[in-house]
Amino acid sequence: MGKLVTEMLKGTLEGIVLAILSGRPAYGYEITAWLREQGFSDIAEGTIYALLVRIEQRGLVDVEKVPSEKGPPRKVYSLNDQGREYLEEFWRTWSFLADRLEQLRKGGK
Amino acid sequence: MTTGSNEPKSRYLQYLEIVTGSLEEKKRYRQYKARIKQLPENYRIAVEALERYLMHFGPADGAGAMAMYDDLAELFEQGAADGTPIRDIFGADPVEFVEAFMANYPLGQYRTRERNRFTSAIERAAGENTTTKDRTD
């Protein structure tokens, strides 16, 4: 994955993760693994962890600690109402942006 | 994400901490150090490099720093347990990761202080009547 996609992802990764969590609760490693499968191969696990800390601080997700066989308990993240609201706003903004860019590409204004 | 008791401190402890800094924080920092010591060597080396960066640019001390160190230990304990390669944790550009991580703990960062000071100065210079100053510290 090139530098450009990394830059473009910066503003959208939060929405992507919230969208993943809107399907079902997940822990950090599952989210990273899913993103890798989808071709976002350069995403650092640490970056996803930092993002999860941030959305937890902002109250967009609920966190449950689940004991694991190896290592510390895993934090399982699920989208809450506030997160769902934020995700809707994300999609609205995304549509606006995608629409305007498509017009630009077609040479309109 | 803050721990520590809410019981009022004895007067003795209050005076003592003026001299020594928060004892609770010192204890938490020692606990963090002990957790890092348990990590496999390559993870430990990576965390220590990360710490050095955080010492320069991260929160100096206080609750912000302690929350940060707890989260840091958790990330690497999990990574070590899963056997996640160091490069997968840090990514191609480790600086990008550390900056994203650090941004979650604005309390006590000199950058936060200076950003707020700068923002207020520009608001004043622009003649805006504002009461938003020092939002996070």
From TrEMBL, chain A:
Q: Hey, what's the signal peptide range on this chain?
A: none
Q: Which residues form the Transcription regulator PadR N-terminal domain?
A: 17-89
Q: Which Pfam families match?
A: PadR
Q: Which Gene3D superfamilies does the record match to this protein? A: Winged helix-like DNA-binding domain superfamily/Winged helix DNA-binding domain
Q: What is this protein called?
A: PadR family transcriptional regulator
TrEMBL record, chain B:
Q: Which domain of life is it from?
A: Bacteria
The record ties this protein, via Pfam families, to: DUF1048
Name of the molecule in the record: DUF1048 domain-containing protein
Species of origin:
Microtetraspora glauca
